[in-house]
Amino acid sequence: LNRSHAPTLVLGYEMVKGESASQYARILAGEYDTATTQLAQFLRERNQWVYIRPLAEFNADWYGWGTYYPGNNKEDFVPAFKHIVNLFRAADAPVLVQINYNTQNSKTSDPDMLQFYPGDDYIDEIMVDGYNFAGVDESHTTWMTFDAVFATWYQTFANATTKPLGIGEFSTTRNGGDKIAWIHDAFTKIICDYPRF
Fold first, then answer.
1. DSSP code of 95?
2. Coil, helix or strand at residue 158
3. Can you tell me whether residue 149 is helix, strand or coil?
4. Mind listing the pLDDT tens digit for each residue in 64-87?
């Protein structure tokens, strides 16, 4: 494979069977193996390097592949994630692997993000999504600065690994604060205070 340039394309890879079905058992049982291998072979034939982002925002309960989604065992996330990566590797696909967290572990009080990290051997980049959802519902009543959204997650992973860190998604509401100032502050913070992003 010719990797003369870093990938410029990110493919989010979601596993969905059933409108609201838990997914880890299906992944580990091989229900997605054929489709995953076909995608891997397609990318290899095109010699198209991409970032692959399986199961984005997995540390949550709002997707069927979420660690806190009913029917999933959170201990199965790492084996399921590794299973997907191993299929791409077995096909010698030209992919770099991103793992994509949300800054919060769903509605739980479980603070341990690292329990879901598959290890540096399986990851090329660690991504995170985070939002200031102030005023959206009764669970989000406080205006949160960029630091309040991202600082804890960032320090956790900056201390745990030397892998590149990045932001997949971020934004803010305008409920209770200045949206434009929040976004301006976010970019300033990224440049000045978050060198690993």
1. E
2. helix
3. helix
4. 999 999 999 999 999 999 999 999
pTM check: above 0.85: yes
Task: Place 4 in a pLDDT band, splitting at 50, 70 and 90.
Answer: low
CA distances from 75 to 30, 71, 78 (A): 18, 12, 7
Cα 17 versus chain centre, distance: 20
Helices 77-90 and 33-46, interaxial angle, to 10°? Answer: 40
Q: What are phi and psi of 50, to 5 degrees?
A: -140, 160
Six-digit token string for 82: 């590794």
d(CA 139, CA 28): 34
Please choose, from the candidates 128, 130, 65, 69, the residue with its C-alpha nearest in 3D space to the C-alpha of residue 98. Answer: 128
Give per-residue pLDDT as tens, 108-137.
Answer: 767 789 999 999 999 999 999 999 999 888
Q: Are 102 and 129 in contact (CB under 8 A)?
A: yes
Burial (CB count <10 Å: 0-12, 13-18, 19+), residue 52: buried
* E strand or H helix at 185: helix 179-193
Rounded distance between C-alpha atoms, residue 114 and residue 53, angstroms: 18
Residues 44 and 3: beta-carbon distance below 8 Å: no
Look at residue 100 and give its three-state secondary structure. Answer: strand
- Residue corresponding to tokens 């997707």: 63
